Amino acid sequence: MSRIVRAAAIQISPVLGDDGLGTARKVCQAIRDAAEKGVKLVVFPETFVPYYPYFSFIQPAFRFGGEHLELYERAVIIPGPVTDMVAEAARDTGMVVVLGVNERDFGTLYNTQIIFDATGEILLKRRKITPTYHERMVWGQGDGAGLKVVESAAGRIGALACWEHYNPLARYALMTQHEEIHCAQFPGSLVGQIFADQMEVTIRHHALESGCFVVNATGWLTEDQIRDIARDPALEGPLRGGCFTAIVSPEGKLLGTPLTEGEGMVIADLDFALITKRKRMMDSVGHYARPELLSLLQDRRPARTVHYVGEHGATGPVGSSNDEAAS
Question: Which residues are catalytic?
């Protein structure tokens, strides 16, 4: 029997220059707007709260120290006020929410994806395993503990951020866990049209290869925001284009019209019968796999900086309190 879940990919602009909660409030309003349209799963852009560090793409590292520190001050503690707000909105609307945030864990920032169930419970907090290029000056590295699929009210969900989709083994790790919906997040308003073109190829290919739906959300910057971030007309160009908010079926088909400019949401009904239809022909982690020839080793142990030895010689990993609270 078929099961249908209505999903929305949100293209939206952040709130800049406030205490960091303005963007979170905008997220909660978008969740409620989507709920009025019957949506049960909503996906927001990469590190959307409080905002993606666009400054790091257009400035050399020695110049953006002040802006980096501002991001620290506005970053999200998990759990904390932002996650409480979003959890309440998810619970009130019965919505599964996938949100990208800049997470602060004491002295380090991380590119983090949070999956909230329809009850408001945090099902997964995962960190981007390798920040890309300029991002390495902003965020720390994640670990394999977050490369997992979770059972939610909307189905089996996996998530990756941006160029993690160019790591085939990271994608395969999720595929082996039989994800039904893959939630992809990109910053948007970056690089130009070529970024949007590459994004389309990437998410459509993953849908075909995994035999799952892909819900992809990108951010959006207004012209005023571009001017405020760039501070120099010569630096504004790299902050335009690169938006491709879309939903893809397991057959690689775009469901609805992708959003490449402005704010809005792409909504589609995900018919899970299409997953079986696709995998009957090609199941890359089942009857189409050759595990005796090719296999993947995944280390899912959380990265820890210290291991304490107990009184009787037993060892146990010890991490930060923020990690423990959301693990």
Answer: 46, 128, 162
